[in-house]
Amino acid sequence: MPGCYLRIAGTEFDPDSFLATATLTATRVWHVGHPLAPSGPRASRFREWAGFTCDVSDADGNLERQVDDAIAYLTQHHDSLLLLNADTTIDDRRLDFGFDSRLDDVAVQGEWLPVDFLRLAADLGIGVALSLYPACSDDT
Questions:
Q1: Which of 42, 65, 71, 81 has the fewest Cβ atoms nearer than 10 Å?
Q2: Rounded-to-integer distance, Cα 68 and Cα 57, Å
């Protein structure tokens, strides 16, 4: 899932109640006991966590722009995100950055997150996940 999204979840968490009082707009909400998928093999397995996700950045594959968008998002929704720290039913608070590996052959792909972003996320109790996706060439 390239781009950046905020994921909030917990085994005892009530996403509907939280979202009713927050400035956040969820793009997906799920509840304990609901099927993992509407059909297929995962439809017979059920969710053990409730939660929601919010789109933070649609900068597909561009980590630097996603970080800039995340700083703006965390700043804009600071008060609602602070409420997450007070909610003891939340087990997972994270920003997930999906970005592409480089097409050229490199031995190591290193990425850097700026201190101002890390400080802001940490002050809000939000972790950071980096999801590296395989690059696709134009002919695949």
A1: 42
A2: 9
